[in-house]
Amino acid sequence: LTMSEYADNPPAAIFLTQPLDERLPEIIKYAISRGIILFSPFQGDVEKGVLGGVHISDRVLPHINASTMKSAGINIKQFFMRVSVIYGQ
User: Fold this and answer.
1) Domain count, the chain
2) Cβ atoms within 10 A of the Cβ of 11, count?
3) Cβ(49)–Cβ(72) under 8 Å?
4) Residue 4 — very low, low, confident or very high, per pLDDT cuts 50/70/90?
5) Contact 76, 50 (CB under 8 A)
6) Which positions ≥6 away from 30 have C-beta within 8 Å?
7) pLDDT tens digits, 7-58
8) Residue 26 belongs to a domain with what CATH number?
9) Boundaries of domain holding 57
10) Does the pTM of the predicted model rise above 0.85?
C-alpha cells in the first residue's frame, strides 16, 4: 500500500473495498493526517479508527468514529450526525 502518488493531491475520501488487516493502521494514519474521509463497510474497522462505516441493526445507519473525525479536522452536517451511530463519544 503506497499513497505516494497522492502526495500532492490527496483524495477527499477513500472507500475501502477489501479488508486491509495489518495495513489498516497505515491508511488510517494517512487519512487523519490529511483530513480525508475514510469509509469502510467492514465490521470492526470504525472501532479501529476508520472514520465511517455502516451499523446494521433493524435499520442500516451510518457509523461514525467521533475521535477520528475530530483528529482529522472533519465536520459533518448535523443531520447526518443525528441519524448516525457514534463511536467514541
Assistant:
1) 1
2) 12
3) no
4) confident
5) no
6) 3, 36
7) 778 789 999 999 998 999 999 999 999 999 999 999 999 999 999 999 999 9
8) 3.40.50.2300
9) 4-87
10) yes
Number of neighbours of residue 36 by Cβ within 10 angstroms:
20
Return the pLDDT at 2.
61
Bridge-based pairing state of the strands 60-65 and 52-56: antiparallel
- Residue 44 in grid coordinates: 470492526
Helix/strand/coil (H/E/C) assignment for every residue in 47-66: HHCCCEEEEECCCEEEEEEH
Secondary structure letter of residue 85 according to DSSP: E
C-alpha 20/C-alpha 31 separation (Å) is: 14
Q: Are 49 and 27 in contact (CB under 8 A)?
A: no
Taking a C-beta distance cutoff of 8 angstroms, is the pair 61, 85 a contact?
yes
